[in-house]
Structure formats: structure tokens, C-alpha cells
């Protein structure tokens, strides 16, 4: 390729190869320049419908006008002071909003951080400080981040843990119900009790569960299972942490997925769609638990940055004033109908599952449910060729997940679903 014909994408890709480590993968190979709603334009001016939403960050869509306005206004006034040095009201009032929003009829407090992993790290620190115990139980197929502790909590070895050991101590893993793959809620709870027995109930600080697994394949946890974990926490004195980082802020049809079961966790971690594209995460929980760490024990230079806090207020305003939940409900019904039709046509789609608009389908090769990761990759690639950004998920890489903004307009949704249908039709029999 001569310089004259070289695309912008190729030019940036070459720069990237020379300057950015390969460990940071780039699924689409695209470089974004601009985005709005559920539409994204790349460096070569190509237009794409975005069903990935920056991995679940954009439930209210790209460059939501409320978010843009709030960030612009905030940027003109105060971008940073570090909340531990000079506070600002937005942090405090956002904490108040999250304390009201998270389930639980008791006093709550909220700590802000920057990334999801940081929120999970802090939830574990707080649980250890509150209980004086070391052990944390995570679950099979769970994903909690890439830092040392959260990578240890994460189940999948490749690519998240390969070469990065030794891992953090006092992390244990219990089974998880996965009906399609033959693990029932009863078996999973029996496995959990067994793990507790081995650790010693008096040593367990916390159990951490995603109410709908994100990277683990969009598996909604049965209400009985969540109730079972709650019961084990009550029995042992451990704290229940709900990791709502991917399932939160309207994705499942409620503000938080735990609302579906009514099970009340002690601590909740949120991030991603909380701030509509700005880096912000939170730990919300029982006031006395949140106050367990000593003064100065929590924080971070950028944690709860004013721009991100302003963005989160705008996101919550959008939910309250523009009824984003109702928009999500209508969108979820359309997506579910299309996925249902695809399942009826293709035997390789073993299951369509999810909660609200957190929807996915799992691909298999045969009646033995052998995972078909290859078909999933081909569908994602075929979708991209048709102008749709799509993501895989699941422990076996054979699940296609839909994370389209809940605010996508009907043309965006139709174009995206049309490309999805065409890509699936081209790959599956
Ligand atoms: C459930 C869950 N927890 C934690 C994380 C980690 O968040 P971050 O990538 O912002 O550190 C993720 C990210 O995908 C997630 O889905």
C-alpha cells in the first residue's frame, strides 16, 4: 500500500503497533472519531451501529446531550481538586442519590473511585475491615477486573490471568448455576457450603456475585441462588457483595439487577454506565460497614473526579426525567423477538437468555452442547463487515451479547438487528 492510498485506520494501526503493547487487544481494529446515540464513526468516516456500548458503559448512549452539557459546564468550573484535599458538593449529592437507589431499608454510604476493578478492590478492603476476616469467595465464570486482587477473583485464566501469577491469597471459588451446562442451583449452593466448610465459616469476610454475569456469558443468577448466598452470608457473618458493574443502570430493566430478586446485598459495586462514558465507579453499602476503614483508609487521587461526578448526575437525571427504563423495556422486547426468531431458525443457538436488555445467545456445535467459539467469532466478524459492532462473551467464547444503548432510536436498532440477522444467517445453517 502506498502512502497516498493508505487509510487512516492503517496509519493509526501502524503507529499503534510500534507504540502500544499487544496485551491491549483491539477487537474491531477500528479507531473511533465521533459517536452519537448508538452510532459511531471511525477514522475513515465509516459509520457503525454500536451494540457494544464500550462494554456496557453507554446505556444512555454515546455523547448523551445531558452528559455532554454537564461535563462541559463542569470543565469550565472545576476539573480536579482531589476530594481528599478539597471536597465538592457533587460528590456528596451523588453519594446521596446512590444511597437511595441501591436496595436496602437501612442507612447507606457511598465511596467513589475511577474503575470497576478499583470499586471491587475497595469493596473487599471494606469487607475485610468490617469483619476482621481474610477470605473472599467468588464464583465460577465470574469477572471482577484486571488488578491483582480482582484478577484473582476473576475465574477465566486465558487471557486475564495468563502469566500474571502468583495471585492474591485468601480468594476461593465456588460453583455457579448454569442450567444449560447441567449445574443446578441446588448443586451450586451445596458446592458453596462445601467451600465455606473448608475455609472455616469464621474466616469468610465476603462473597461476591454478579447478579447477571457479564464476561461470564450473560447468565442471570436464579433468585433462589441469590437468596441462598444471602442465607450463607447471614449464617456465617460474611458480607454479600453484588457486583453490578455490568448489570447496573437500567441494563436489566431495573436500575440495578438485584431489584429483580429483591435480595439485599451488604455492599454493591457499580461503574460503567453510571457515568455515561466518564470513568467513575462506586461502592455503596451499609453505613456501619462502609465506615469500618479508618480515616484516610479509602480514596484515590482521581477517585470521584468532578467531571465524572457531573456526568453521573446527568445520567441519573436522564433515567429520572426521560424514562430511559421504559425505552430500554421497548428495546429489549424487540431484541428478544429477533433473537427468538434466530433461535427458531438455527439449531446451533442453544439458548437465548438474559434479563431486560442484557441479552445474549449461546452457540453450540451439537446436541452435546459443545461450545462453538468459532461460529461466534465469525458472526462478530460478519456483523462488523455489515456495519455492526458486536461483542462475544462467556467462559468458552461462544456467546454473543447485546449491549446496545437503551436510548438507541428505531432506525439504529433496526439497522443493527438487520446486520445481526444477516451475519448469523451467513454463518449458521
Ligand atoms: C462485573 C464486572 N466487574 C468488574 C469489572 C471491571 O471493571 P473495569 O474494567 O472498569 O475495571 C467489569 C468489567 O467488565 C465487570 O463486568
UniProtKB/TrEMBL annotation:
Presence of keyword Cytoplasm: no
Gene3D superfamilies: Aspartate Aminotransferase, domain 1, Type I PLP-dependent aspartate aminotransferase-like (Major domain)
Origin superkingdom: Bacteria
Cofactor(s) listed in the protein's UniProt record: pyridoxal 5'-phosphate
InterPro entries in UniProt: 4NH2But_aminotransferase_bac (IPR004632), Aminotrans_3 (IPR005814), Aminotrans_3_PPA_site (IPR049704), Class-III_PLP-dep_AT (IPR050103), PyrdxlP-dep_Trfase (IPR015424), PyrdxlP-dep_Trfase_major (IPR015421), PyrdxlP-dep_Trfase_small (IPR015422)
One GO MF term: transaminase activity
A Pfam family annotated for this UniProt entry: Aminotran_3
SUPFAM superfamilies the record matches: PLP-dependent transferases
Family indicated by similarity: Belongs to the class-III pyridoxal-phosphate-dependent aminotransferase family.
Name of the protein in its database record: 5-aminovalerate aminotransferase DavT
Source organism (scientific name): Deinococcus xinjiangensis
Amino acid at each position: 500500500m502506498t502512502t497516498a492510498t493508505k487509510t487512516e485506520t492503517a496509519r493509526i494501526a501502524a503507529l499503534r503497533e510500534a507504540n502500544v503493547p499487544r496485551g491491549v487487544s483491539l477487537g474491531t481494529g477500528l479507531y473511533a472519531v465521533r459517536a452519537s446515540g448508538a452510532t459511531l464513526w471511525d477514522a475513515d468516516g465509516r459509520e457503525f451501529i454500536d451494540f457494544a456500548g464500550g462494554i456496557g458503559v453507554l446505556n444512555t448512549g454515546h455523547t448523551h446531550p445531558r452528559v455532554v452539557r454537564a461535563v462541559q459546564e463542569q470543565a469550565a468550573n472545576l476539573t480536579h481538586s482531589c476530594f481528599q484535599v478539597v471536597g465538592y458538593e457533587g460528590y456528596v449529592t451523588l453519594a446521596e442519590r446512590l444511597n437511595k437507589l441501591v436496595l436496602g431499608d437501612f442507612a447507606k454510604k457511598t465511596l467513589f473511585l475511577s474503575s470497576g476493578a478499583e470499586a471491587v478492590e475497595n469493596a473487599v478492603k471494606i469487607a475485610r475491615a468490617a469483619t476482621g476476616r481474610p477470605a473472599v469467595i467468588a464464583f465460577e465464570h465470574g469477572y471482577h477486573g484486571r488488578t491483582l486482587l480482582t484478577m484473582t477473583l476473576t475465574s477465566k485464566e486465558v487471557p486475564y490471568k495468563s502469566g500474571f501469577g502468583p495471585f492474591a491469597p485468601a480468594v476461593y471459588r465456588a460453583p455457579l448455576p448454569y442450567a444449560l451446562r447441567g449445574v443446578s442451583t441446588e448443586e451450586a449452593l451445596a458446592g458453596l457450603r462445601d467451600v465455606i466448610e473448608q475455609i472455616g465459616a469464621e474466616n469468610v469476610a465476603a462473597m461476591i456475585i454478579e447478579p447477571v454475569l457479564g464476561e461470564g456469558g450473560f447468565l442471570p443468577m436464579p433468585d433462589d441462588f441469590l437468596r441462598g448466598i444471602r442465607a450463607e452470608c447471614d449464617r456465617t457473618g460474611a458480607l454479600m457483595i453484588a457486583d453490578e458493574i455490568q448489570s447496573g443502570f437500567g441494563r436489566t430493566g431495573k436500575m440495578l439487577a438485584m431489584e429483580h430478586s429483591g435480595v439485599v446485598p451488604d455492599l454493591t459495586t457499580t461503574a460503567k454506565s453510571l457515568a455515561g462514558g466518564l470513568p467513575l465507579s462506586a461502592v455503596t453499602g451499609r453505613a456501619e460497614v462502609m465506615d469500618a476503614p479508618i480515616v484516610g483508609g479509602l480514596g484515590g487521587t482521581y477517585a470521584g473526579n468532578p467531571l465524572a461526578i457531573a456526568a453521573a448526575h446527568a445520567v441519573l437525571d436522564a433515567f429520572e426525567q426521560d424514562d430511559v427504563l421504559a425505552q430500554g423495556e421497548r428495546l429489549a422486547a424487540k431484541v428478544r423477538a429477533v433473537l427468538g426468531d434466530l433461535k427458531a431458525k438455527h439449531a446451533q443457538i442453544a439458548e437465548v437468555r438474559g434479563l431486560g436488555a442484557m441479552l445474549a445467545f449461546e452457540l453450540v456445535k451439537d446436541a452435546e452442547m459443545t461450545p462453538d467459539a468459532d461460529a461466534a467469532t465469525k458472526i462478530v466478524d460478519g456483523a462488523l463487515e455489515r456495519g455492526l459492532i458486536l461483542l462475544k462473551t462467556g467462559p468458552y467464547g461462544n456467546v454473543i451479547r447485546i449491549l446496545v444503548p437503551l436510548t438507541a432510536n428505531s432506525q439504529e436498532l433496526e439497522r443493527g438487528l438487520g446486520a445481526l440477522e444477516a451475519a448469523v444467517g451467513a454463518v449458521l445453517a
